[in-house]
Amino acid sequence: MGEAAVEILSPPGWPRPSGHAHGVAAAGRLVFVAGQIGWGADGEFASEELVGQTRQALENCLTVLREAGAGPEHVARMTWFVADREDYRAKRAEIGRIYRELMGSAYPAMSLVEVRLLEPRALVEIEVTAVVPA
Known about the structure:
Layout: E1 6-9, E2 23-26, E3 29-37, H1 50-67, E4 75-82, H2 85-90, H3 92-103, E5 109-114, E6 124-132
Parallel strand pairs: 4-5
Antiparallel strand pairs: 1-2, 3-6, 4-6
C-alpha cells in the first residue's frame, strides 16, 4: 500500500478533537465500505454486547478495505450508528482501546448517530470511506 494522500484539516483556534479529525482532504481512488455490523462472515454475531460487536464491525470494515488494497491509514471518513448512546458512552474507553488496536493512529472525520438498526440484534453499524493513492 502506498503512502496515504490524506490531509487532516484543523481550523486555527478550534479545540483539538479527541479520537477524530474535524475534516480530511484526500486525493486518489475512492473506496466506499457499506455499513458493517458485528457479525462474522458466517452471519453469526461475535458477541451480544457493544464492545464485541464493535470489534467485529471494525474488523469487517478492514477486511473489505483490504480487498481494495487499502488499510486504516487510507480511511478518510467513518460514520458510526449505535443503538444506544448511553451504552456507547459507558463503554467508550473499551471501544477506544479496540479502535486504536485495529485502526492505529488513523483518526478520520467521524460522525456518531444513535439510531434503530435494521438488524434487531445489532448494536453498532460502521461505514467507511477511504482514499487510496493512485
